[in-house]
Amino acid sequence: MDLQTLTYIVVGLSFVLYIGIAIWSKASSTGEFYVAGKGVPPLANGMATAADWMSAASFISMAGLIAFLGYGGSVYLMGWTGGYVLLAMLLAPYLRKYGKFTVPEFIGDRYYSRTARLVAVVCLIFISFTYVAGQMRGVGIVFSRFLEVELLTGLIIGMGIVFIYAVLGGMKGITYTQVAQYCVLILAYTVPAVFIAMQLTGSPIPQVAFGSTVGGSDTFLLDKLDQIVQDLGFTQYTAAYPEGGKSMIDMFCITLALMVGTAGLPHVIVRFFTVPRVRDARASAGWALLFIALLYTVAPAVGSMARYNLTTTVQTGEIGSPDGNLLYAERPDWMERWEATGLLSFEDKNGDGRIQYYNDNNPAFQEQASEWGWQGNELSVDRDIMVLANPEIAGLPNWVIALVAAGGIAAALSTAAGLLLVISSGISHDLLKGAVTPGISEKSELMAGRIAVAVAILIAGYLGYNPPGFVAQVVAFAFGLAASSLFPVILMGIFSKKINREGAIAGMLTGLAFTMGYIILYKGVFIEPVIDNVPENWLFGISPEGIGAVGMVLNFIVATLISKITAAPPDHIQHMVEDIRTPRVTTAAE
Amino acid sequence: MSDNSENGGAAYWKANVTLIAVSLVIWFVVSYGFGILLVEPLNAIEFGGFKLGFWFAQQGAIYVFLILIAVYAIRMNALDRKHGVDEQ
């Protein structure tokens, strides 16, 4: 059977599975629609959270990003896992005890203020929409790449699938579909990684393999990789803080902004509203991180092995010797196949029919290279190829390639669905029921929720097809805003009884304005950048990706100061705080 | 930490906050400490094919995060029972 047919069959089967689950788990109340009736077992919720969390970018792009950044890529590995420790200890159990439906609802109740709730909804909608636009784009790209359909067709198919299970099943449908999607995506990610690890080092465990010796020799993979990339003029793979790389303070702040941002993202927090008990919220944060770690500890192994494979495929012999480089005519099949997609391209600058792949931005090395007759780097490689081409590089059968396609689609769909649901609950529950028409019946609210999902899908699809200039910058935006606006006020709402309405609103607005302002200034979202986005211009050397960490600190400081000079929260709020801190409130008789 | 049952709330909360504080110190040390601030000195130490600082940044910190959540969840269940605030 040819690859194309097989891919259609595997992806088609996965869709049948998702839709089947959606029909089985149709939501019949707002409780089921928003929080799956609070009946999701912790292990299943952990799996759903992991699928929700790991987007198309995690699946397709992250390993490639690490492959080219080396040590610098660690910010994503630590940043996108460490937030779960904060969730498990600082937020999830207490928000579950609070026991209502949405994050803005908590902020509104705790700070006894409709304004606070509205500010939170605005943050939530902005964060989630920027994020979901990127996901829909991912859905379209995966479809068009693997199924060879137009981007628009791919986007419409993806929107249709999400539409069916998000509108019908609400949180309940999404949760159980995500469990299935997790299984598909983790299988698709780890199978090729295991085979590549085995071929390269003889060890089947990728996490061990990239610390092992390369087949047949007694040299360690990472040492050999450091050596060969350095010999080609790049910085060493494992070296910390190389010239032109990220500085220590920037690594620190980016990691912090990503961790805190993770814990402040509404579509992640709301997952912990769906479990039956407080203790399940803690356990399910642990399960979620376990399932996420399965991918996140394999990704750096894939990154280093892929970089090694790519480099040694091209540099077949001694660097600088006339026949040390791969003849273009003898390139392997996978290179030929991916050239057709434009993800890989070759330009024979010196006309010797061989591929030279090296760092021509390194002046000292370029001088040396010129003596060998190298006239510039001839191979350009898109980072996504590091995951997409893995099965072919490892020479795996076609069904594995088909599985990777299904995995990429699963990763994009599951994240998009989770985001769309929090947008819809923000609109139907926080805006409509919370502010516009408080008297709305449960049935009408449920209908409003469904309509809101449908409309959100259309807008997300439109943004995915016509991405505004800023889609590429959204990661910095979504995480920075979540870190600097929502996380601090939720945390203070639980751990302090003194922070009041005025403090919370001022804190959120300060964090939001500072972070948004800084990112716009350097990255020019909506407008042209005002200042060149280079390290010399940054405040304390912190890049826009990391500035959310500073915004968060400002939020804490402003909220504390303002709360000190204004009236303390009323008694019933202080009791509410005591109540959410305890899983079961003991009776006076005890 | 005491058998202060009529005031279970305050003692329970204090024990919880202490546990969180200890956990977050470890959380900080393995990621920001070993993985970022001290990565260069630690990279001088090699174990297997890994430089230690690099390993913490790309593997070790994640494993420690997992252990921290597991220990916290288990300890809190015990704490809930001790203070009589566990869910049935």
UniProtKB/TrEMBL annotation, chain A:
The keyword Nucleotide-binding does not apply. Belongs to the sodium:solute symporter (SSF) (TC 2.A.21) family. GO terms for molecular function: symporter activity. One of its GO terms (cellular component) is plasma membrane. It holds the Pfam family SSF. It is found in: Membrane. GO terms for biological process: carboxylic acid transport; sodium ion transport. This is Cation/acetate symporter. It is a multi-pass membrane protein. It comes from the Bacteria. Signal peptide: none annotated. Keywords: Cell membrane, Ion transport, Membrane, Sodium, Sodium transport, Symport, Transmembrane, Transmembrane helix, Transport. It comes from Roseospira goensis. The chain crosses the membrane at residues 6-24, 53-71, 77-95, 116-134, 146-167, 179-200, 249-273, 285-306, 399-423, 444-464, 470-491, 503-522, 542-562. The keyword Signal does not apply. Its main location: membrane. Gene3D superfamilies: Sodium/glucose cotransporter.
